[in-house]
Amino acid sequence: MSEVRVIGVALDSIGQPVLLLKPIDGEAAQGKILPIWIGPLEATSILAAVQGSPTPRPFAHDLMRSLIEAIDGVILHVEVTRIDEGTFYAAVRIEGSNGEHLVDARPSDAIALAARVGAPIHVADEVLAEAGIEDTLTGGPPPHDDAADEERLAEFRRFLDTVDPDDFKE
C-alpha cells in the first residue's frame, strides 16, 4: 500500500468530477496520479473537507464522522483496495471499543470521511499499477509543492463559491 493525498478534483471532458490522488510515499508509485471518477455531491463534500470550508448543514460524511466519534471509535485510515472492471473498491479501518473493523465503502465516501478526520489514505500498489497515470499535472516528483497546492486550492475555492445545488439536479 502507498499513502496518498488528495491533490484535487477536476472535471473531465464531459463535466464529470474526477478525484485526483497523488502518492506521498512508495518509490514505485512516485510520478503517478490515481484518477477516480466520482459523483458531483461527493466531489463537493471532499473539496469542502480538504479546504476546511464550513457547511450550512452536515453532509452525510459529517454524520458518519459524528456517529463513529459518538461511540468512541477512531478512523485509523482508509484503503482503496482494488479495481475490478473499472470499479474501485475501498474500506475504512475503524478502531472501536471491541477491536478493529474493516468496513466496506465506496472510495469517494471513504476519502471524504478521511478528509474530515485527518486520517491517512492508502492505495493498493496493484491499483496504482493498473489505474495510475503519469503525473503531468504537477510535473511528477517532488511529491509536495506548497505553491502549486495553494493554486489548486484557490481554484477549488472559486468552484465552491460559484457552485449552486441546483446544478446537480437531474
From TrEMBL:
Pfam name, any one: BFN_dom
PANTHER family cross-referenced by the UniProt entry: VON HIPPEL-LINDAU DISEASE TUMOR SUPPRESSOR, VON HIPPEL-LINDAU PROTEIN
Domain BFN positions: 1-135
InterPro entries: Bi_nuclease_dom
Name this polypeptide is given: BFN domain-containing protein
Taxonomy, superkingdom: Bacteria
Organism per entry: Leucobacter soli
Single GO MF annotation: nuclease activity
